[in-house]
Design brief:
The protein has 185 residues and is an alpha+beta fold. 13% of the residues lie in helices and 26% in strands. It has one domain: Beta Barrel (Cyclophilin).
Length: 185
């Protein structure tokens, strides 16, 4: 278990459990893009460090430790959200730490928004969702809004269209192959 900042170039080894919330590893004045490669295609999101610094920091921290590699989108609800980032694949797991909410104003969610899933106030960890339709856009502002897709909406649409079974789980795994971070000043 570690809580040191990972190498910005993505060369740190994979870590899946952490001893506490990470230190601030990002520079909130920089720009961050996350490339999310799935077995259905690639989505790229622009992250919002200025409005959700702790949330973006945690997401970048986990991505640079390859935490998301091989995890699944375990919950898919058409016209609502696709949710992933659970190491158990069940919606019950996390990275070993939680952090406080950085909530948006009402009405800010849009198709392609990235937000943190939680189990109530100040319980953010590693699980995140991508809003895939109008039902998701109407969520109350109880989830940290930390990014938005800038490409790959067709991939999001393809993923939200997969066949699901009990508990909104995809019948065939929708795998997050990797999440890589590009940083610029």
């Amino acid at each position: 278990m570690t809580s040191e900042c990972p190498a910005p170039d993505g060369s740190s080894p994979r870590v899946t459990k952490f001893s506490g919330e990470p230190p601030m590893c990002i520079d909130v004045s920089h720009s961050y893009e996350a490339t999310i490669v799935t077995n259905h295609g690639t989505m790229v999101a622009f992250l919002f460090p200025e409005r959700a610094p702790r949330t973006v920091n945690s997401f970048v921290f986990l991505a640079r430790y390859h935490y998301f590699d091989g995890l699944t989108f375990h919950r898919i609800i058409r016209d609502f959200v696709i949710q992933g980032g659970c190491p158990e694949g069940t919606g019950t797991g996390g990275p070993g730490y939680r952090f406080v909410d950085e909530l948006p104003a009402a009405g800010e969610y849009a198709v392609g928004s990235l937000a943190m899933a939680n189990a109530g106030p100040n319980t953010n960890g590693s699980q995140f969702f991508v809003i895939s339709g109008g039902s998701g856009m109407r969520l109350p502002p109880q989830y940290a809004l930390f990014g938005k897709l800038i490409s790959g909406l067709e991939v999001l649409d393809q993923i939200q269209s997969v066949a699901t079974g009990r508990g909104d789980r995809p019948k065939d795994p929708v795998v997050i192959e990797s999440v890589t971070i590009a940083e610029s000043e």
